[in-house]
Design goal:
140 residues; mainly alpha; Serine Threonine Protein Phosphatase 5, Tetratricopeptide repeat
Length: 140
């Protein structure tokens, strides 16, 4: 299967912005589907889980993102960004209790503990200004 691309001119700036948003959602949805297909064959690919989760976060599909961020914490239990991302997705999905109780890194004095408390406080104050997930690296 292939894609057909064509140039489209809109009559107004709001129309152009609406078209751009629709195209972005379509492309991100296609990327998520492709990522899921690869993960079905390679379920231990932590970087791809993270990439697919970031796509789902940008699409507003918090529960789908959480599933993939949780997979990264299992595959890379030493990764502070993985736990941070899982916590961000839990809060965005409205699961504050699980965020506070269930996603703490193994007790190793990790610096992620303080930001997690701050994020939970921000969420509990009702600001709803979700932090962006942290980038992760493919390096061990």
């Amino acid at each position: 299967m292939g894609d057909l691309w064509m140039q489209v001119m809109t009559r107004s700036e709001p129309d152009r912005q609406r078209l751009e948003r629709a195209a972005r959602v379509k492309m991100q949805t296609e990327d998520a589907i492709g990522g899921e297909q690869v993960l079905a064959r390679e379920p231990n690919h932590a970087d791809l889980h993270n990439d697919v989760a970031l796509i789902y976060m940008s699409l507003g599909r918090r529960r789908d993102a959480l599933r993939h961020f949780a997979a990264v914490t299992v595959l890379r239990p030493e990764s502070a960004p993985a736990y941070y991302n899982e916590g961000v997705a839990l809060e965005a999905a409205g699961d504050i209790d699980r965020r506070v109780r269930g996603t703490a890194m193994p007790s190793s004095g990790c610096p992620i503990t303080q930001p997690r408390t701050t994020i939970s406080a921000r969420c509990c104050c009702g600001r709803g200004n979700w932090p962006r997930p942290a980038a992760t690296s493919s390096a061990p």
